[in-house]
Amino acid sequence: MLPERGPHGHTAAAGLSRLLGTRTAWTAVGDGEFFCPGCGGDRNYQRLTGRRRFTLLGVPVLPRGESAPTVECAACGRHFGTDVLDHPTTTRFAAMLRDAVHTVALAVLAAGGVCSRASLETAAAGVRAAGFDDCTEEQLAALVEALEADTGRFTGEPCAAGLAIELHEALDPLAPHLAAPGRESILLQGARIALADGPYTPAERDALATVGAALTICSTDVTRLLAAARTPS
Ligand SMILES: [Zn+2]
Description:
binds zinc ion; elongated; alpha+beta; single chain; TerB-like; 4-stranded antiparallel beta sheet; 2 domains
């Protein structure tokens, strides 16, 4: 059907755009789960590549190159750039947070040497609150003992180096997705475990400094937060 020809120029242009256009043919190249910023939740997605073509009367005629890779939400159908995949799903984020709290608790307990009942209770309560519902004081004590047996055997030192690596592995991927109060609260939980059996020891300070650095909290703020944790509020 030919467009109607009106007396004004823009009517003719509108008619032309109905004649000519571009159409994108999408091909699915992968799928997975992501956090959809469109409908706000963990959803399945398809990763799409598209080939654009000029169309004449709706019929593709000329290739016009590739469109940017696109992610399509299976629930709302909206399209996004692939950078949305950098954002962890809610499930993944919760798991990262839980692992972070668990690793920080172990690092601080191990730095403290022999675990007092008070430190273990503070640590286990924090780990349970973070999502490991059935974490017990005994489990943490056993893990700390195993860590010490494992690393102390080689270095003669209390597992500092090995734990620094563990801390970075658990905290580095999490830090960019947490706002400052979230990062500070993980450090403060560690500080409370260290303080449960008395003032910070040098090894506990070192462990907490490593936690702060992995969470990208600057050393001035780490010092301020560790002092604040010591002051009973
Ligand atoms: Zn969606």
